[in-house]
Amino acid sequence: METNHLVTLVGSGGVGKTSTSLRVGADIVNRFQDGAWLVELAPLTNPHLIPELIAGLFNAPIGTHSAPIEALTSTLRGKRLLLILDNCEHLVAAIASLADALIRSCPNISILATSREPLAIAGESIYRMPSLTFPEHTDNITVHEALNYSAVQLFALRAGAAVHGFVLANDNAPAIAEICRRLDGIALAIELAAPRLKLIQPRELANRLDDQFRILNGGAGPLFQDSKL
Q: Which of 86, 101, 128 corresponds to the end of one domain?
């Protein structure tokens, strides 16, 4: 982000764009004197409200004689910060126009966007997030075979961090692989599922995923809201 002032994480829904952007923001926030800020765009349907939404986040004064984008660029011109624009896909044209204006007017602003498609403006660096791989056949799969798939690798990593003593082994590899298959290798779903092993065994979790994602609801909240990290 130091050399690229606009980076867009592009991928299909559920591959982990939001969680990745939050981790990146947390990792590099110390590089920005004025912090890192999250703007969650999913609930917004009117593209004309985007500048006003972000201006309000920074208490940019919006008067009768100045447009929200002008107030926003004036407020941020001297700031050094990271702006995370999450879920841009339904507002791509408006976000692209806003991002272009901010980058041109505010040389110390960096933008990290998440979207299902690029913003397609000058200076944009695109990072395409691939879907995780998972086995199609899980019966009798060994731990060595299971670890050839990125979805299983992620599950094992998250389960190991959340559940004391968890180890991916031949006896639980088929169930873990089945969980990843039923979750279609979606990174966010896998990250939510892995900590459930604190409560139930892998095979029981796999069986309960017949109603896909139902068990994953609840217990998860936003990592941070529209505020400084």
A: 128
